[in-house]
Design goal:
It is a single chain. By secondary structure, the chain is an alpha/beta fold. It is built from seven helices and six strands, in the order αβαβαβααβαββα. The protein has a six-stranded mixed β-sheet, sandwiched between helices. The longest helix has 20 residues.
């Protein structure tokens, strides 16, 4: 299975800012959406040439009922197809956020980061890869402009920040969807993404 648009982007990232020593394990955050499905599939295609091992991680937030259950099943099936081990957990995020006085997308992001850091430790992973794309990069810059950022904020997201890797910043969501379509790989649509209550 080849993802012809994304694999060259990942190779450039893994030879450049996202470079890791051969033998490293990478934890791949997989929600089940197009971007993360494509990231896992493309990394699975190129991992051997870089001497990397992969583990996928999926957090069920306990918020979207049967839709979220379907996301988890999709990710499990994808990992089985690709031969990638999966670490999955279900958290009752609403209760945790209430207890810890967190709210909105920012609160959920903190919980996801906490889960991924714990999963990376459990897997013995040297890095955590997330499926941020050029679309996310543009959105980040626009949100920062709207909030009155200085020049530093105009730089957007970096491909690497400590153990966190964003190797798909050189690709768009359309690239991911086209590659998945060509490979006949399905992905999940999160209906909550249509809710514009929160800036993402």
């Amino acid at each position: 299975m080849r993802l012809r648009r994304l694999e060259p982007v990942l190779r450039r990232a893994l030879r450049g800012p996202c470079r890791l020593p051969a033998g490293s394990r990478v934890l791949v955050a997989v929600s089940g959406g197009a971007d993360s499905t494509a990231l896992l599939a493309a990394l699975a295609s190129v991992a051997r040439e870089f001497g990397l091992a992969l583990t996928a991680a999926h957090l069920h937030h306990g918020l979207r009922g049967a839709e979220a259950d379907g996301d988890l099943e999709h990710v499990r099936a994808l990992c089985e197809r690709l031969g990638v081990p999966l670490l999955a957990a279900r958290w009752e995020c609403r209760a945790i956020m209430r207890r810890e006085q967190l709210s909105g997308e920012g609160g959920l992001r903190q919980l996801r980061q906490r889960f991924l850091l714990a999963a990376a430790k459990r897997a013995g992973a040297a890095a955590i890869a997330t499926a941020h794309t050029a679309d996310d990069q543009l959105e980040t810059v626009l949100m920062r402009l709207a909030r009155g950022t200085g020049l530093a904020g105009l730089g957007g997201m970096r491909a690497r920040h400590g153990a966190w890797l964003k190797p798909m910043l050189g690709a768009t969501q359309l690239d991911a969807e086209r590659d998945l379509g060509a490979a006949r790989l399905a992905w999940r649509e999160d209906s909550s993404n249509a809710d514009r209550t929160w800036l993402r």
